[in-house]
Design goal:
The chain is mainly β and 208 residues long. The protein contains two helices and ten strands. It has a single domain, classed as Porin (Beta Barrel), CATH 2.40.160. About 3% of the residues have low confidence.
Length: 208
Amino acid sequence: MKTDKVNCLGKSLYPVLVFLAMVIGRPAYAGALGLPESTARLGYAVGVAAVSVDDPAGDTGREWTMLPMTLIHTDWLFGDIRYWSAFFYYKASLDAAVNKVGQNVEQYGLRFSLQKSLRVARLWAPWFGVGIAASRATYTTRHIVDADGFLIDTYPDREQTSVALLLNVVSEWSLTRDWDIGAKLEYAIPVDGDIDETSALITLLYRY
């Protein structure tokens, strides 16, 4: 059963992984084309997210949770277009309330966006992006309570492979020649899945 779940997630992520393998290899050709070789960057991000779940047993509340680990790779593609890829992992605890299903959520996966730099002020040109995410989510300790907080019922744990549409904006500032700090806002809209998420991240990127 566990092997089947891993295979299911692998099939969902395969097209993303193939494309990432192709574009990550682009810097090797940059020198031959007379382009800057230092357009690729690796990074790490932490932040917070407001998470809710469209649970089969009923809606949940929207709760804030920490995003402790997001690994980033980004590189220029052409013109003012770049790609932004990330591996992420987090846990969230959604409290039960009247007509709200409480549960613990654990999610990990890959996100990929194409971003375009648009100048909105003389000294500010953030990156606006659209993308897709594929992830695996586990929902545990699903339950409901009454108005006094007493347990009414519990539901079985469940797992799900999810796909989401991403809308994001990133702004960055140089620290040194090779290091940048940034801020990212993103909205993940479930396409085939139950998690609705709005996140804010602080990023640290290294040009290599």
